[in-house]
Automatic annotation (TrEMBL):
<dbReference type="Pfam" id="PF00903">
    <property type="entry name" value="Glyoxalase"/>
</dbReference>
<dbReference type="InterPro" id="IPR004360">
    <property type="entry name" value="Glyas_Fos-R_dOase_dom"/>
</dbReference>
<protein>
    <submittedName>
        <fullName>Glyoxalase</fullName>
    </submittedName>
</protein>
<feature type="domain" description="VOC">
    <location>
        <begin position="6"/>
        <end position="125"/>
    </location>
</feature>
<dbReference type="InterPro" id="IPR029068">
    <property type="entry name" value="Glyas_Bleomycin-R_OHBP_Dase"/>
</dbReference>
<dbReference type="InterPro" id="IPR037523">
    <property type="entry name" value="VOC_core"/>
</dbReference>
């Protein structure tokens, strides 16, 4: 079974590695782990995201069926990321919003779009049991 010290791995397309670096490292504050001619490997909030240089990216994405991100346990962490994204002028695909008010799955959410059209969703659930 997965242990907390293990990392989830996700590979995504990147049309330009310098753009990907600027968005993920300079924008979101992810740590660059490695860089090669064809990819960059990132510490994405404790998991591994690899941006592979590719011509197969989606310049006009839709929210469903494909996006990825982080669900925060603490509201303050989610709010700090919203503030960081605004300060660093990252492109919001969906502005922060409140969803399912009054229901057990009530949560806060927003989506960012990276330069290659990959969509990232960041959430915070009022009830931590709803994270999964």
């Amino acid at each position: 079974m997965r242990e907390p010290r293990d990392a989830f791995h996700l590979a995504i397309p990147a049309r330009d590695l310098d753009e990907a670096y600027d968005f993920y490292v300079k924008g979101l504050g992810c740590k660059l782990a490695r860089r090669y001619d064809d990819r960059i490997t990132l510490d994405f909030f404790g998991d591994q995201v690899v941006c592979h240089l590719s011509e197969n990216y989606d310049p006009n994405p839709s929210m469903y069926p494909r996006h990825f991100g982080v669900t925060f346990r603490e509201a303050d962490d989610w709010r700090r990321l919203v503030a960081l994204a605004r300060t660093r002028e990252l492109e919001f695909f969906v502005e922060p919003f409140h969803r399912f008010e009054g229901k057990v799955e009530e949560h806060e959410s927003f989506m960012l779009k990276d330069p290659s059209g990959n969509l990232l969703e960041f959430k915070y659930y009022a009830d931590p049991r709803m994270m999964y």
